[in-house]
Input
Amino acid sequence: MSFSAESPALAIAPADSFAPESLRLAGALWAELSTIYPEQTAPPFPPRDIVGERAVFMVASLGEKAIGCGAVRPFPDGPPEIAEVRRMYVAPEARGRGVAAAILRALEDWARARNYALMRLETGARQPIAIHLYERVGYYRIPSYGHHAEDPLALCFEKHL
Output
């Protein structure tokens, strides 16, 4: 079964990045990434990274259960029309059903409504499913940016909205 942002079975809505469910999802993402990239020592994701009128943290839920998340924030030190996708995560039991694509569509719609024209993101070389998703929905590889430029496992993408 697959979902879309309009599916009544799947709800995707803005949430407080400091809320317990948001912190649980971000923690699960961090735990998974720590397993995939044990050599990396970056700190976990601080919720304060996703605050302000031009940032959003979204949670995907099936019924009462939060099963995924994603965020958009202004691109660090970039022009105001560029946004960065952060914290894309879907719980293992909900994968393979289109939840990540639905979250990404919701984030893009939110960004478009706030006059963002370009979305950028970083993912890891050891995450082929994520890479495939981003390419399938129109993201294309760009040179690594910011602190990712020195990371050989970082892959950066962007998409014009």
Summary: The chain has three helices and seven strands. The two ends are 27 Å apart (CA to CA).
